[in-house]
Amino acid sequence: MIQAIFVGLWGGVAIWFGISVFRTSSMVRSALSLLASMAAIGGMFLALEAEFLGVLQLMMMATEMSIMAIFMVMFMMDPGGLGQMEMTHQKRAAGVAGLAGGAVAVAAVLLADWGPIVAEADGPDMQTRALGIELMERSMLIFETAGVTILVAMIAATAVAITRQRTP
Amino acid sequence: MTGLAFIAALFAGAYAVAVLEAWMATGRWRLTLPILSGAALLGRESLVPRRPDRLLFEAGPPIVLIAAVSAAAVLPLAPGVILIDLATGALFVNAAWAYVMVALVMAGWGPNGAYAMVAGWRFLGQLVAYSMLIVMPITTVAMRAESLSTAAIVESQATGWNVVTQPLGFGLFWLAAMAASFIPPFDHPVAPGELAGGVTGEYTGVRLAVFRLGRLVLVLSLSIAIVVFYLGGWHGPWLPGWVWTAAKTLIVVTTMLAGGRSVPRLRSEHLLAWCWKLGIPLALVNILWVGIILWMVDR
Fold it and tell me: Domain extents for chain B?
């Protein structure tokens, strides 16, 4: 019962900060709201006794969202939101897409066969071990392929961004 | 009871760090300095700059303190003396330290001042440089312990400290810890003499006191982490475990503070270049090296 309350609480916090991402004109506030939303999802993982995933979520999102914040500040024309500039567009299309996406997600939750519910979760150390074995055995090819692809994309993006320096 | 002992130990440690840092800077032992400067800060007016982002301005300093205390909470000070013994403790410390950066970005953006903002973003760049050198050496100590629990990592060093078998990882982690706690020559977020105090420049009074306390606890948590991961934690002859942890931590703090005193501040892009072009390959070599050692021991 307490577990369900905490899952719900963190879920509510995640949704609240998810909404506040779009309710502010400040790019930094927006990015940090998204961070808070993601950190709340980390809290949900912890409440669901998935300790490794929760801690990993908390760690990864801190860096990723902060890096996103600086890119938003660099590329937006009114990063502080002090000029009250309108930065949204295609509101109707976005609303329809959002509602449709939400409906699909809710339908997936209600209609999917989630299988039997585990009465008692393994201890966090056993979960970490199981995750490691999964990454190193069955899912190794998928994760290594994804990792190398992302690395190649990063190198390619950097190579494109660097201006060629001509030596006289 | 453990909680109270833990808080008392953190306060004592932070106090010692403050005295040591003042000694490094001025060359004089002033044991009452932290009390006096703390009282002076608390007595001063706490100003709010014009048109701040109030929420981020107020949230920055407490988050530095909370993140630093959270990191220290999962590190063992003696056998059984650990506030929260997480099975993923070695991962959790990274998560906690990452929020120091978030807090500094907040504290940089919040006051609506150019110097503070530049300093806050600089620390984000600094994190991009050093974070891999925090994570990758921790991987190898976890490899030896076959656990992410910090207590298990200390216990795995009963037969020999990690610094002996993993000197490369120790060196990288030590430097990365200095960068993570913005000790000179990695003091970009505060940058005295260049950015007029950086992220702390717009803070006064009680807010600055909280920020400074958080920073002291941060230095302490990183030093305890070095002791836990590489210097055998509480292991040592004759004396009780907590004395060994305390003594080793003070030595690490001293070396960290002394190490950068006479070195000029490293430029951001140079730090990035050194960390990515030299540091990360060395950290990979360290992982390979430790893997080979463990494989040979297993055989």
Answer: 2-298
